[in-house]
Amino acid sequence: xxxxxxxxxxxxxxxxxxxxxxxxxxxxxxxxxxxxxxxxxxxxxxxxxxxxxxxxxxxxxxxxxxxxxxxxxxxxxxxxxxxxxxxxxxxxxxxxxxxxxxxxxxxxxxxxxxxxxxxxxxxxxxxxxxxxxxxxxxxxxxxxxxxxxxxxxxxxxxxxxxxxxxxxxxxxxxxxxxxxxxxxxxxxxxxxxxxxxxxxxxxxxxxxxxxxxxxxxxxxxxxxxxxxxxxxxxxxxxxxxxxxxxxxxxxxxxxxxx
Length: 258
Ligand code: 13P
Description:
This protein is 44% helix and 15% strand.
């Protein structure tokens, strides 16, 4: 299937950065720069919970969509410090990052909780961006494909084909996150193609062909075009470079060029 028929998505993952005042300024700067991507590339800013309402207000009427960085799997209840899918939907949030390696590494996130969060997000009408990726040690031991296959199977467990089509997969090799070490375009393409093959095995080719697969891990203004030119890389999940309007826009424009 032609890549052009899939939705290209460039998403910033701000992580734990920006106060509300800073968020407003950054989004005001990004908005006009990326306006030309409308109808071609989906542009998303995934921001800290405390910035969501501000971000929704600042981007209202623009083509910049807003996402959260996590969501809990329960509807409500005794889960101190957590945020439910309904709370995000009420704000008008459309996307949510789930299973980021920082959550897996620092906050005990497992494939099981990633799966539960993904199901809860979809049931509430949110579009999950599910992150998968191997550790450096796992790549060195030549088990990248086993690791990714396991994550895809477990993280998406019980999802229908329709739900998977509403799910974005972000391939983020853990060794490339925030390290300045980017996977080469060929390495990234190889794993993104492998993810699509797994989806075809678990569902069918048409479903696999419809899913947007992003690359993330030190994607920046200098390397985005080469990564995004690959046939199975449909977008990017961008950390550091999403905090600078000009750099983020350069990546969006690279996606617009295809
Ligand atoms: P960096 O772009 O800072 O490497 O972060 C990538 C990432 O973790 C996006 O979710």
